[in-house]
Amino acid sequence: MLNRQNFSQKILKWFLDTRQHIAVPGRGDTDPYAVWIAEIMLQQTQVTTVWPYYTRWMKSYPTIADLAQAELDHILKSWEGLGYYSRARNIHKAANFIVDTLDGQLPDSLESLLKIPGIGPYTAAAISSMAFGQVTPLIDGNVLRVMARVGRIDADIAKTKTRRRISDQLGQLILRENPGSFNQGLMDLGRVICTPKNPKCQDCPLCDECEGYQQGDMEAFPVKAKKSQLPHYNIVIGLIMRDNKVLIQKRPPTGLLGGLWEFPGGKIESGEGGEVALLREIKEETNLDVVITRNIGTIQHAYTHFKITLTAWFCEWTSGEALTLAATDTRWISMDQIDTYAFPRANLKVLELL
């Protein structure tokens, strides 16, 4: 049984001693808006990747009111390359809700935060504890790993029952007088010390309390169910040129990559060659007739639930007017205008080939 005072004080001391050396967006900030944006960006994304996005975001949208007034296209452009674009759409939706119903201010209680569209339990706990000092445990992948090793928990951490068990335990351990620093300390400990591979146990303030370290099998935890192999798809896209302009189309607002712009194309069907598939997809999506003129190249890209091999070609328009058969908007733009539109990362990789 962990001693709350001993465990918590060690976490707090380690955090206070090291926080000036561990730069994380939003950490140490009591502005609830800054905490909110930083924690959303940090979900499933490395700190080094987030920093430039976070810095630009706070300059572009310094307040929730500024964020709510911005066009969604601008929001998605600011998010371009960060991935998981539903996060950006949810932030924009939440900002409008906050302005319309909460006078533009984030509330301080967990219960009120959870009523805001797009703010879930993790983000609500982060805002309430870090910005408002509420005694709310905060659980992310780093915290789960630390606690699983400390207690040698042999249950799958992906299961709700296991996460609830850890949450209940943290509810007993969290510091009442400084919950925000406790939460940040435990997350940062998992990120820089209690790493998935080759943890720096000798530098860990919890090594005396850690059963995994005492038993020498810390890397056997946390227990996770084996992931099934991700499906793979072959994709083709065409950069269709007409009078020195290229055709782009906008994806529907919901679903994967919702609201982003892309080049026409799609999956290669069984028995098809790449060029045949591209001509078919362009006809189905735009009703245009084109000729393929030059291969641009092939890139590999991974999404959360599948992987793709994407091949791109330049095409030349021959006849027809572009229809929005699979999109919400279609535009002919000059190549130097591309930077003003938000594209999925896979399309950006193709542009990098150019």
Description:
This protein is α+β, with helices and mostly antiparallel strands and 354 residues long. It has 14 helices and seven strands. Strand 1 and strand 2 (245-250) form a beta hairpin. The longest helix is centred in the N-terminal third of the chain and has 16 residues, at 86-101. The protein is elongated and about 75 Å long. The model has no long low-confidence stretch (mean pLDDT 94).
Layout: helices, strands, pairs:
Blueprint (H helix, E strand, L loop, with lengths): L3 H15 L13 H11 L4 H14 L3 H6 L2 H8 L6 H16 L8 H4 L7 H11 L9 H10 L9 H14 L5 H14 L18 H5 L16 E11 L2 E6 L10 E2 L2 E3 L6 H13 L2 E14 L4 E13 L9 E5 L11 H9 L1
Parallel strand pairs: 1-6
Antiparallel strand pairs: 1-2, 1-4, 2-3, 2-7, 5-6
Helix pairs in contact: 1-11, 2-3, 2-8, 8-11, 9-11
